[in-house]
Write a structure and sequence with these properties.
326 residues, eight-stranded antiparallel sheet, 21 strands
């Protein structure tokens, strides 16, 4: 099966952030604020590569989607999505996917002094030193520079551009097994958990801080450790160093069962007995370093997806069961 879709959506219903001084619960209201489109393809293939005593039935489905905002109210003014936490790493802007990631560009760590290097809105390199006073923000030659806190740019879409599943059922004699995989990718995630674990405000740190800059000439991606510094690693405002690809492959369900021959319990009126074991969320392959590429700290937010901050990952469960038919 193959399908193509192209859906234009007008008068989108979105959460519009409001000033806290208005006293509106949640600091947002729902409004019809513009239009966007979704277009892509959906493919599905089902087959039985093996039949007989050993059988294998398989289903593969795949979908691709391209999302783009085409109009907003107030002369297409972008909407900055709030995470409700320390980061506001999302933007809805005409010409980009809804809820795209929004962060300040960086250029690594200056090997001469260990300062984080940022890229300002003019494309110039600016370095930062916590407690540096008038010299906190400087160009690489040491001359004073303005803060880059307001120089965020669109970094990439938070909505997966492709996803699907791969489901398999195997049977041999009285044994049966099932493997269901899910996959997704083409999107980016803001790893706010990483920002917090590199924060220097007497918080828990990850072992990454052991790679922080210590001596002139050292090449590393972790700035020098300065007590109280919550800017260099992205806790004060989002930086692209904490944006990661969200591609993954997950073994969602793995099942193994055995059906006892009907003749064993025929005399007591039992028609079937099946023993089984099942593992949910059995395996996850991803390069995303956070807790789970499918978890968002903002739940089902339509303006701030793909932002993860101290989120609880999906659990792995093991189940054993008995099915009895009369």
């Amino acid at each position: 099966e193959a399908d193509y879709f192209n859906k234009n959506i007008d008068n989108m219903i979105l959460d519009i952030p409001q000033a806290p001084s208005k006293g509106i619960p949640g600091n947002s209201i729902l409004a019809n604020v513009g239009s966007m489109y979704n277009k892509g393809i959906e493919l599905a293939l089902t087959g039985r590569p093996f039949t007989g005593k050993f059988s294998w039935t398989t289903t593969l489905n795949f979908a691709s989607i391209k999302n783009k905002v085409t109009a907003l109210v107030d002369n297409d003014k972008p909407i900055i999505g709030s995470t409700g936490g320390l980061e506001s790493a999302s933007i809805t802007k005409v010409g980009y996917p809804i809820g795209s990631l929004y962060a300040v560009k960086t250029a690594g760590v200056n090997p001469e002094n260990g300062r984080r290097i940022f890229i300002n809105r003019d494309g110039k390199k600016v370095q930062y030193l916590h407690f540096g006073g008038a010299n906190a923000w400087t160009y690489l030659d040491g001359t004073p520079a303005a803060s880059v806190a307001g120089d965020a740019q669109v970094m990439g879409g938070a909505i997966p551009t492709w996803y699907g599943g791969f489901n398999n059922t195997f049977r041999y004699a009285n044994f049966d097994a099932g493997l269901m995989f899910t996959f997704s990718g083409g999107n980016y995630i803001y790893n706010g958990s990483r920002a917090g674990l590199l924060d220097q405000r007497v918080w828990n740190n990850s072992t990454e801080v052991l790679n922080s800059w210590k001596t002139p000439g050292q090449v590393t991606n972790i700035p020098r450790a300065v007590f109280g510094d919550n800017v260099s690693n992205g806790s004060s405002f989002p930086i692209d160093a904490n944006i990661e690809k969200g591609d993954f492959l997950r073994l969602q369900t793995a099942t193994l069962g055995y059906t006892i021959p009907a003749s064993v319990f025929k005399q007591i009126g039992v028609s079937s007995v099946r023993l089984y074991g099942q593992v949910n969320n059995a395996f996850l392959w991803t390069k995303y370093s956070g807790s789970d590429p499918e978890i968002s700290s903002n739940g089902g937010s339509n303006l701030a997806p793909g932002v993860e901050r101290n989120s609880i990952p999906q659990g792995r469960t093991v189940t054993f069961g008995l099915n009895v038919g009369f």
